[in-house]
Design goal:
Number of helices: 5
Helix content: 40-55%
Number of strands: 8
Largest sheet: 5 strands, antiparallel
Radius of gyration: 21 Å
Structural class: alpha+beta
Amino acid sequence: MERYTSRFNRGLAVSVWLLVGFGLVGYTVLHAGLAQPLWLLPAAFVAFAAWAWLWHPSVEVDDAGVTLVNLVRTVHVPWAGLVHVDTRFALTLITPRGRFAAWAAPAPGRTGVMLAKRREARASSARVPDLGTTVRPGDLLGSESGQAAALVRTRWSELRDADRIPIGVADENPPRIRVLWAQDAALLVLLAGTVLATTLV
């Protein structure tokens, strides 16, 4: 199995955890101890939310299909049920049952496009096509959506060339959706605790 995760998002998650840690240490030192233990609830919520929103999401590719690990659910799309891969707003898997975007692979904004082009130009030592010609911004290999899309398309193409994907049966191979109940419940409990803490303290 191959897995794609956002380096940028994971960097943000680490930054959030460091800020939370420094905040707790500073509060403890300032008050000569944790005077209000309820402040642990907001800290825990922010830290866990950073894990759920920034660190945990991924795109997983194997011979069975593509799995999008998103914020509140996972979506597994079998290769036989995949119709198209789009990158307009994010890596998006298109099936007869709907479109499913990857939280871990958003398309770049204007600044992201410029940075992605520079990275791609440095990597290939070749001119990167301008917007509006042959390459959509979200397909640039220097972007997160482009990297994830290349991972999906490469495996999809390999399996099709090896005649390992049945043709014309997309309707018979629907995506499998699994809600992350434990993760979502933990977020809600910590959010409720944060509201309570800010009300009482």
